[in-house]
Structure formats: C-alpha cells, structure tokens
C-alpha cells in the first residue's frame, strides 16, 4: 500500500531509504603523497677511471671502465630537469597548463637513487 505522500508503507521515515539519507558536505583535508618515478636518462660524466683498454683477440676495441667514483646524483641533477623542479619551467596559458604548473609545484625530493644500466 502507498500512503498519501506517495511513499511505500512505512518508508517515509526509514533512515535506510535513499531519499532519507543525510548528505554531508565535502571537507578539505591535508594528506601526504609519496610518488616514486623511474626513467632511464643519459648523462655525461668525467669522474670515471679506465682500468684497461685495448684490442681483444678478434681485433675489437674494448674498455674496462670503473664508474664507482662518479657522482651520478649530481650529474643527473645538473643535466636534467626533474619532476619536482618542472613547474619552474612551464609556460603555458591554457587551463591544463596552469593546472600542471600548480600540481607540479612544491613537490619535495625525498630520496634519489641513480644506478648504472
């Protein structure tokens, strides 16, 4: 049966009914986001050691190089724009460009690790 308000019988004041659910307002909260990114890059280094070089038995030139003393982190930072710095270089007048600019700002480099490929 349906009562005079067009609600099913007993449903007018039922808190489980979708039309009786209380909507709470959105609330802005602060969160901390950790993002790990990975990319293969090429860098120039000059702080390596050539341990051995010459021609092998087939006549091909070879070098045995020690990169263990290279400051790879500083080389990457000085030769590439990393994501946490990218906002400083974005120049665009579109809505997406402005959003990218603001979304890229204020990221802090928590950790950086550079490995040889």
Q: Please, what is the average pLDDT?
A: 83
Strand ordering within the main sheet: 1-2
Give the overall silhouette: elongated
Q: Level of helix content?
A: 10-25%
Beta-strand proportion: 5-15%
Helix and strand string, N-terminal first? EEHH
Task: State the end-to-end distance.
Answer: 74 Å
Which regions are unreliable across 5 or more consecutive residues at pLDDT < 50?
none
Secondary structure class reads alpha+beta
Oligomeric state:
single chain
Our count of helices gives 2
Radius of gyration: 30 Å
The number of E-state strands comes to 2
Tell me about the biggest sheet?
2 strands, antiparallel
Labels describing this entry:
two-stranded antiparallel ribbon; 15% helix; single chain; 2 helices; 117 residues; elongated; 2 strands; 11% strand; alpha+beta
Brief digest:
The protein has 117 residues and is an alpha+beta fold.
């Amino acid at each position: 049966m349906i009562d005079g308000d067009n609600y099913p019988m007993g449903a007018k004041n039922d808190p489980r009914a979708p039309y009786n659910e209380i909507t709470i307002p959105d609330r802005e909260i602060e969160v901390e986001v950790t993002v790990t990114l990975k990319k293969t890059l090429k860098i120039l280094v000059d702080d390596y050691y050539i341990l051995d070089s010459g021609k092998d038995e087939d006549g091909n030139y070879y070098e045995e190089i020690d990169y263990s003393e290279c400051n790879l982190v500083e080389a990457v930072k000085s030769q590439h724009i990393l994501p946490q710095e990218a906002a400083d270089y974005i120049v665009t007048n579109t809505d997406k460009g402005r959003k990218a600019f603001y979304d890229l700002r204020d990221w802090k480099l928590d950790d950086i690790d550079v490995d040889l490929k």
